[in-house]
Amino acid sequence: MSNYKLVFHINENDRWPFTLRSVRNFVRSDASNRAVVVANGGAVRSFSQLEADPNRMARIRGLEAEGVDFVVCEVALDERQVKVELIPDYVRVVDAGIVEIARLQAEGYGYVKA
Question: What pLDDT is recorded for position 51?
Fold first, then answer.
């Protein structure tokens, strides 16, 4: 068993396909692996009504069902005028994504810039 823990940091909306593939490959390589995806910057646009991609959201939901935690930065949501109410209940909203990344690294998570 590997017991690896990674935080995947995504801040560009067009990087979601790559990020989701990487996360899927990581968690499926060993059931003991743990992953958290922290979205800030432009990546939060995927949660807006105008830019939400149903296939992408289904992939996010599927990975969440496999134990992946998804976190969204409230500052980035505010800056892009994406309402917190649009965020699915299985995605956690934090005050600042960068602080969440630092916290996870302090807990022993490795960092992957996706």
Answer: 66
- Domains annotated on the chain, with CATH: 1-83 (3.40.1260.10)
- The CA-based diameter of the chain, rounded to the nearest angstrom, is 42
For residues 95 and 97, give the distance between their C-alpha atoms in angstroms, rounded to a whole number. 7
- Token match 């005028």: residue? 81
Contact (CB, 8 A) for 21 and 29: no
Q: What is the distance between the alpha carbons of residues 47 and 4, in angstroms, rounded to a whole number? A: 28
Helices (H), the chain: 16-29, 54-65, 74-79, 97-106
Average pLDDT over residues 10-35: 96
Q: Judging by beta carbons within 10 Å of its beta carbon (0-12, 13-18, 19+), is residue 82 exposed, middle or buried? A: buried
Question: 82: helix, coil or strand?
Answer: coil
Confidence at 57, pLDDT banded by 50, 70, 90: confident
